[in-house]
Amino acid sequence: MTGKLDDRITFLGRKLGVFLLTVWTSATLIFIIPRLAPGDPIAAMIARMSQQSGYVENADKIIEGWRERFGLNDPPSIQYVRYLGNLFHFDLGYSMASFPATVSVMIGRALPWTVGLSLVSILATFLIGNFVGALLAWQKTPRWIKLCIPPTMIFTSIPGMLAAVALLYIFSFQLHRWLGLSAPLFPLRGAYGRGLEPGVSWPFILSVIHHGILPVTSIVLVRFGYWALGMRGMMITVEGEDYMHLARAKGLRPFYILYHYMIRNAILPQITGLALSLGTMVGGQVLVEIIFSYPGMGTLIYTAVRNQDFPVIQGATFIIIVGTATAVLLIDLLYPLIDPRISHQGK
Amino acid sequence: MNTKVSQPSPTTNLLEVKDLRVYYETPGGDILAVDSIDFELKEGETLGLVGESGCGKSTAAMGILQLVQPPGRIVSGEVRLQGKDLLTLSEGKMRQLRWSKLALIPQGAMNSLNPTMRIYRQIQDVILTHQTTGSDKLSADQIKNRILELLRMVGLPERIYQMYPHELSGGMKQRVCIAMAIALNPSLIIADESTSALDVVVQRVVAQTILRVKQMLGVSMIIIGHDMGLMAQIVDRIAVMYAGKIVEIAAVRDIFNNPSHPYTQLLIESIPSLKEQKPLKVTEGLTHDPRHPPPGCIFQLRCPIVTDQCRSIAPKAHLIRVEQSVACHAYENTDVARTV
Ligand SMILES: Nc1ncnc2c1ncn2[C@@H]1O[C@H](COP(=O)(O)OP(=O)(O)OP(=O)(O)O)[C@@H](O)[C@H]1O
Ligand SMILES: [Mg+2]
Known about the structure:
The complex is a heterodimer of chains A (347) and B (340). Chain A is an all-alpha fold. Chain A has helices at residues 2-36, 41-53, 59-69, 76-88, 103-137, 143-152, 160-179, 202-239, 242-249, 254-279, 286-291, 297-307, 310-338. Helices cover 73% and strands 0% of the residues of chain A. In chain A, α10 (254-279) runs antiparallel to α13 (310-338). Chain A is flat and about 85 Å long. Chain B is globular. Residues 1-9 of chain B have low confidence and may be disordered. The A-B interface holds A 241-243, 245-253, 256, 260-261, 264-265, 268, 339-341 and B 65, 67, 69, 94-100, 102-104, 106-108, 110-117, 125-126, 129-130, 164, 166, 177, 180. Bound molecules: adenosine-5'-triphosphate (ATP) and magnesium ion.
């Protein structure tokens, strides 16, 4: 059995290698690209400051001081090594727009919200979509269900942003007025109620769920149709497989066949798709976050772009890439558990 | 027929198929894949069903198993298993009968195992589903032992138990299917061309496995295929199918020594022989559109002895000797008495 273990270690090593290579390449690109751009970020910043305040005293001195402080006077190779070293400690520098705050602290505050929102909505979309798709294709699904589902898929053809705005309008602006209630059914903005102390307490958790329902729904509504259609196609393919024929001949119970023979096989390619969408976990919900003023990475990047806050943009980009690479790595490692034909030994 | 005998004797019919028709609906009209076939199978008997590709062998099998999938449908007929007409059973009743009475060794054995389930689970699920609640419930250990026993019976090593289908060779998968088929001691096993996708050596080995299993269990079988040589070794009687109809049905030795339908003669002649080098007889000639069979005999377009009568009147089955029946006008006057 040591042979098998060795194979697994080789497999793990190779996947980790690819992961590190991805992270390193992206870090290097993030290092190079701003330096290739014409102009000097510090000078640009001073220019912006002088635009805002009209005049900056001792601009030259400030520029020089900052160049020294950010290490821009050192040769590029030294800068590069120091940059990598800092990244390794997740030291992403200081925000320019909200200066004394470090980028890592800002990201650290935003990241959990985004990951939470994305994870819940991606998983909900996946489960609902595939369930619906399986029902659409299954021969024994009652007719009325098959008739009721397709109309709900029109949401797939509207842009996600619009769905978010529409939900917000209906459930946070209008519905309570029509119903004659004093407060909106769902909160307008944010991730939790004002005045609540983040922590493990029931009021806080309930408030987070309450605030999360509309953003999650807007994502699920727009995306579940893709999963459903993909799953339906896969189910139909599986339906024609020889093993389905044998399964019916065996006289197995319909639900047993549905789960163990059909869904179990049809879901495999869908899981690859899930891996890809988990990759977008950190960076995928920018627009929804902005519309709901959700304090995650999307809002952070949006604000940073508006303020030309380069360290934050770079740091956030880097974290998004690391997040994506990590998601892909995890899926690669877990996939053999789901599809026995892909083993750790194989290539 | 003697109707007074109520005791089932060793030669009672296990299966009776009457006027079974299975059509596939296509835009250009129905394909008459199985067009009124009749035959019976005795307890413990093995029947070979032969005929060229597309003549409706698998469709007939699916008709018997009540597993015809759309766009196919059973148009008419009776399929009596131990006297019970399967066509009139409810879906639930039929499901209980499946595998416990009627098992299948499928045509595409290469892909007939669920790729995401271990071998033992696929044998186990059939045992579990058909276990009637109550005293005869097997314990987990008993089930495991039973599965290992089944694997041994078909000559598979025990390590197969834990494996996934993709880890097995084609011949091994085929034998897993055989093991699965005998798991519940069914009364009838239908083996659909279980050997054609394999190389010749494996084919023989698998055929031997089937033969051994048959001898061990005394189960009735219908074996579908087009390898007449292989058939000769394992079946008692052969039914020859052409374009959805059974044109001749007889004991193996009669089919080989005295092939009577022109199509059977063609089939026997085209068996390659080692002893004499004869030019390979290609089954040439026009074939008809399966959606619009010509009036009269279905074989008329390829028949060397076709007459005017064949072009207008469909031939009836003539019993030319005990247990040899031929659907051909050439035997109109050779009918022997039906009573034995
Ligand atoms: N799903 C289907 N739709 C339409 N026609 C079909 C379908 N399945 C089979 N047929 C037609 O029915 C006829 C009989 O097919 P069947 O599979 O029973 O032949 P077979 O004798 O088993 O052939 P083979 O030896 O190649 O397995 C063929 O003419 C085929 O084209
Ligand atoms: Mg076939």
